[in-house]
Amino acid sequence: MAYLQTDVTKVTTRVLQNMKLHGEKIAMLTAYDYSMASLLESAKIDVVLVGDSAANVMEGHNTTLPITLDEMIIYATSVVRAVKRALVVVDMPFGTYQGNSKQALASAIRIMKETGADAIKMEGGEEILESVQRILSAGIPIMGHLGLTPQSINKFGTYAVRATDDEEAERLKKDALVLQEAGCFALVLEKIPARLAGEVSQSLKIPTIGIGAGGSTDGQVLVLQDMLGITQQFKPRYLRTYGTFGEDISHAIQHYISDVKSGDFPNEKEQY
Ligand code: KIV
After folding, report:
1. Which tens digit of pLDDT belongs to each residue from 104-157?
2. Which domains, from first to last, does the chain contain?
3. Of 64, 106, 130, 174, which has the fewest beta carbons less than 10 angstroms from its beta carbon?
């Protein structure tokens, strides 16, 4: 049943579309550096997202707002060097597309030219339509992002589940259609009720990729450091961890310190 199982040498937006048609789920994870992106690539991940969650994970900010276009380009360039097969999508950071569609296009062009990535991702619906259209008209593929859009955290005032009331749910459904009509190739649905995410996924021709949006979306995404158990004190209900790498790394570092202090490292075989 796995459409991608055999010889897809490059995951493209068309491949993702075919995966939806064949009912094969899309697996997406974030990466911000060459080492981790190499591991994702050798595990044959479908999509690598250079998310603006780099602001939290790599830079220690409380929100995604402070990260700059220059910083995103550095992360994305390192990731692209490691990835041949997976589709690489790069987040447009806060402030680079919301106000002005010409600036939005210029930001998107910088990402595509300077990083070699395959596509960009933008948060929002109808309110960013002009920017979406202008970028698409330049031939740059866009992944949309609706629901809990972290760049709007100051408007929301909370990281709680979005679209739990009818009005916001209706708006989200409408925005999803607007983005599909405009030509977006896929849509991230973040932290919305599973039933709503299922309804939206069924109603769209383009694939949806969920995070905290239940099992009926066409794919799933998690932040790599969260699913590896590296991020500390972040345990939302939707997060499944696949390791305790935070603890493991910490133990390894403690072991190294103690070996250095005791003179055990390096031993005779570890010297010239
Ligand atoms: O920035 C990010 O990592 C994201 C995902 C959580 C979807 O946008």
Report:
1. 999 999 999 999 999 999 999 999 999 999 999 999 999 999 999 999 999 999
2. 4-241 (3.20.20.60), 246-272 (no CATH)
3. 174
